Amino acid sequence: VVDERHHGYRNLFGWVDYENRFGTMTTDFTRIHPGAIHRANGGFLILQLQDVFSDPRSWTMTSLNTQHGCR
Question: Strands 45-46, 2-3: parallel, antiparallel or unpaired by DSSP?
Fold first, then answer.
């Protein structure tokens, strides 16, 4: 069970951190952060829908993932 209190796009779907090395942005697999949807994969995700509705990008992606599943 994942109870997500901060419903921004980043918190729901994850993000990748980048590092500036000699003027070039680099990353690797250790800098991938899963979002709430990925952490709840196979379990339950508790959201306040009013908060998700307030962010159009979060709502669009959340509705697509509930219809088609996480990929």
Answer: parallel
Please compute, for residue 24, the number of CA atoms within 13 A of its CA located in the half-sphere on the CB side. 3
Of residues 18, 20, 16, the one with CA closest to residue 32: 16
Q: What is the pLDDT of residues 41-62, one digit of tens each?
A: 878 888 887 877 887 887 787 7
What is the structure's pLDDT at 63?
A: 75
Residue 6 Cα distances to 12, 40, 47, angstroms: 8, 15, 9
What Cα–Cα distance (Å) separates residue 57 from each residue in 8, 19, 44, 54?
9, 26, 21, 9
